[in-house]
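Hi V.,

You were right to ask for the full record rather than a summary. Here it is.
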Amino acid sequence: SNKDGGYITSSWELYRAEVGLVELFRKHDVRLRLFHGRGGSVGRGGGPSYDAILAQPAGAVNGQIRLTEQGETISSKYTNAEVGRRNLEILVAASLEASLLHPFEEQVPEKYLDAMDKLSGHAFAAYRALVYETPHFNEYFRGSTVIDEIATLNIGSRPASRKHTGQIEDLRAIPWVFSWSQCRVMLPGWYGFGSAVKSWLADSPEHSIGILRDMYRDWPFFRVLLSNMDMVLAKSSMAIASRYAELVSDETLRREVYKRISEERANSISALLEISQSDRLLADDPLLARSIENRFPYIDPLNHLQVELLKAHRGGSDNPKVLRGLQLTINGISAGLRNSG
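Predicted structure:
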């Protein structure tokens, strides 16, 4: 899962599993229909549905696909009848295109698969090193996000954790992703990519940025992988995240973890722009870029207000307006970021 291995590895393992299932079902002459439990956030399989369907392995759609629409994506896509019909048309069009124009025999070049395997391994190592191998990382996570407040306010249909251990391993996927989006780090949607590209390029003189650019141009899976990450990084803000980091009481821990996250974000953006040959995030989607930027004047103040409310709440305030204010800021930030949980 994303929480266990990070965005790059979880996406790649799902792709490989689909390839294996397609081959198995073809061998036994059984028709395959995959059910995609897509979340609203990129960290939980979200992103533009049209691109996601076209990024499926050859033969994985084959005339039919089943998927869920969850969370805040339901209201944004289906509240209005015309908008809802348009989204259904997009799903049908993508399914038809994937079925008719992506034949079973379509093969991804071996060098692309090999590169993706190695990138996944490097990204996995970088992600695990931060989340599971950094001493007291759980303390940083709980101090700099609203995870404990989410549990207290009973936001969501299920408890935030499967067990009452307080460990990251026992957290459900939704609150894990949702908490990182609230503080504007958006970590589950990109962490490890910068380190992966840097390590892969250093592995062998045969590895070049040109191969990754070819993958981005020719392979829908890799292009969508980076496109979704592009959107997530555009919504993140380390300036806002630094305000939340101030809530972590251990100064040494705060500085170390924040520095690592900030550096990895910078490296991931640099690698992404180098591969896509762009000069800024969302250069290929100016409408989305403008839409996101137009929301910042509304979202940013809510983040600053949320930090102050967290200080008051954790300082022992019993004012019911503090808890109510926290709930309103959580709802407002989520609505502004849209695909956040």
